[in-house]
Specification:
The structure is a homodimer.
Chain A: E1 10-15, H1 20-30, E2 38-43, H2 46-56, E3 63-68, H3 76-89, E4 99-104, H4 121-145, E5 154-159, H5 172-191, E6 195-201, H6 208-216, H7 220-232, H8 238-251, E7 258-261
Parallel strand pairs in A: 1-2, 1-4, 2-3, 4-5, 5-6, 6-7
Helix pairs in contact in A: 1-8, 3-4, 4-5, 6-7
Chain lengths: ~270, ~270
């Protein structure tokens, strides 16, 4: 049987770490990983980064370093340096760890339009810049830094969605990006040694993104569904979903590159 | 039983129409569609456009209009005007036709790199601009012009690939874009009335793209496979594949938004 994936001293990089599910992952994982593990918390939101870093470091044997990261950036240096700068600032190197984790959580939702209305080149371009381009580049930089020769366990999690495998009316760009990101990890799983990858769909979560969904979804039936979920408080708790992800990683029997949903049986 | 999809007087828009499979679709479909149909041939390659238009118009009762189209453009006017300009130049309007077809064939292949080497923001961005952004915008413009109120049959074909559903080593961007474009038509199929959409994987074709694949694919096993296909001439003929697509559209029993491969049984 494969060893549980969160049992090794790890460097754990989380994008979009200041809010919603990213924050839940950072806090929940920080209670799970062994002493000496380091969290690299990345987010556009500089105000909240230190707050989340402090929460992670409530465990005295876990460290956290935070950095402002804009996944939509077209500045090459930003991607070249973001992880290595965080490592240097923490005075650690990749060989100080037994495992590296990258949680590709950052993403955006809008524009939420029917495909017939998605004619604005700049809007579409910005969407894919944030959700695909930056995600690919950061993942490449992660793989370059944590080479198989310096670390023998690498884990990459993509925060996916039901929309990656099932079309949602008036959510074309979101579904397209999620499908593409799922495929990214499937290709990666076929290419790399010493890597475990998983596309995890966390269920409908009570985040800012869900508020946006319930306000701005154009398809009336889907909009109503989001409104009802909000009103009836039937959404999945972020921490519960993060713990389900931990259980999946603990069990470590998933097919490399698989799509796994919160509601799937473990 | 549903009526065959190519039996109506149509306006048929083909992107990437000057070479390879796009050219085959234009020529093969031109022999199939009823008199009075109009082809709108789009391509970056201005030299070859008139040549293909002339070949299409070898049938006296079929017209063709050609225009230079750059799917990677970030010029909004380019997308706003390309189809309407072609219609105006041909002195026709959407109501002159019983059916409109859009064949989203244009796309690019490189950079062909392992994911760990895909760290160049500009390269990744350009790739998705060509393969996703322009494709979404052109499709939206098509849907706006050919509204259900002016035409009661609309057909959108995405030229897909096995890579849309099955990961290919060192082809991450290509597989991601193809997966996203498949999803685009799945969402579209759920959103629109009077639309039939199909993701068609044409099989390995002896095109310029396949030469590039056999020369530049980084994964040695996959590179060898392409080289062998080329050497043994076991590739699928472009016209054969276009005729298989016609057979699928004639039968017209596919699930809306489905992925259909050349090798699938009809």
């Amino acid at each position: 049987m494969a060893a549980p994936l969160l049992s090794k001293k790890s460097v754990c990089i989380v994008t979009g770490a200041t809010r919603g599910f990213g924050k839940s992952i950072a806090l929940t994982f920080s209670k799970k990983l062994p002493p000496g593990s380091l969290f690299i918390l990345l987010s556009r939101n500089s105000d909240l980064l230190n707050e989340v870093a402090n929460l992670v470091q409530q465990r005295a044997d876990i460290r956290a370093v935070a950095a402002v990261f804009d996944q939509s950036s077209n500045n090459q240096d930003h991607f070249n340096n973001i992880i290595t700068d965080c490592m240097s600032n923490s005075e650690v190197s990749p060989t100080d760890f037994e495992q590296s984790l990258l949680i590709n959580n950052a993403g955006s939702l809008e524009p939420l339009e029917f495909l017939r209305d998605l004619d604005n080149i700049a809007d579409i371009s910005n969407f894919f810049q944030t959700n695909l381009v930056g995600c690919v580049a950061l993942t490449a930089k992660f793989l370059q830094l944590f080479k198989p020769s310096v670390i023998n366990s690498r884990v990459i999690i993509n925060i996916s969605s039901l929309g990656a495998i099932s079309p949602m009316k008036s959510w074309a760009l979101y579904c397209m990006a999620k499908a593409a990101r799922d495929m990214m990890l499937k290709v990666l799983a076929s290419e790399e040694e010493n890597v475990r990858t998983l596309n995890y769909a966390p269920g409908p979560l009570p985040t800012d993104m869900l508020n946006t969904a319930s306000e701005n979804t154009k398809d009336p039936d889907l909009k109503k569904w989001f409104e009802e979920q909000l009103a009836q408080k039937t959404l999945v708790d972020c921490d519960d979903s993060a713990r389900k992800l931990i259980a999946v990683l603990d069990k470590n029997t998933f097919e490399n590159g698989a799509h796994f949903d919160y509601y799937d049986e473990l």
